[in-house]
Amino acid sequence: MNEWWNALEVFDKVIWIITVPVSVVFIIQMVFTFLGMDSNDDLNVDFDGDLDSDVGHVPFQLFTFRNFINFLLGFGWAIISFKSIIENQGILILLGIAVGCLLVAAVMYIFISMNKFAQSGNMDIRNSINRTAQVYLTIPAKKSGTGKVHINIQGTLRELDAITLGESIPSGNYVKVVDVSQNNILLVISA
User: How many angstroms separate the CA atoms of 64 and 41, rounded?
Assistant: First the structure.
């Protein structure tokens, strides 16, 4: 190993010194990403100024630590891979820059595509209208109190407060949601 390292030119040593640590950081990032331990924000900074922007919130920014690592990964491995084919260091550097930029674009595209599959977790309670629910806690008659119902909204079983204008509806009965109040209480009738 020592003989191999000593036989390398300074240019090659610099590329290897960049590429190996960046590869390790990249692998750690990927493991954390797929285990769900990564962060959506690369840097948190307190700022008391006022910035005007027409762009709005951009979920995938170009200049992040992750993209810096991706660029250096593509840059370094492209140069190492093509070193035996291309002798000119200038062309190798340009090729490395091109591959680094392509890798950044590819990884950003992958993460943007994966983000489309993510659910926000937000529930629109108005989606419960005209749906059937099962009474969990008795719903008192004529809006004299609230009961509880189990209802499937947006693929998730929820327990929500409910009232009725009619007679009391006992636990276990099925009801139909006819409206939602401003306080997110379901107005139900017997089904």
Answer: 9
Residue 45: pLDDT over 50: no
Q: Which fold has domain 125-190?
A: OB fold (Dihydrolipoamide Acetyltransferase, E2P) (2.40.50)
CA 74 to chain centre: 24
Is pLDDT at 41 greater than 50 in this prediction?
no
Residues of the chain with CATH 2.40.50.140: 125-190
Alpha-carbon span 44 to 139, nearest angstrom: 47
Q: Which of 164, 168, 158, 166 lies closest to 177, judged by CA?
A: 164
* φ, ψ for residue 128, nearest 5 deg: -85, -15
Q: Which of 41-45, 58-62, 133-137, 155-159 has the highest mean pLDDT?
A: 133-137
7 vs 59, more confident = 7
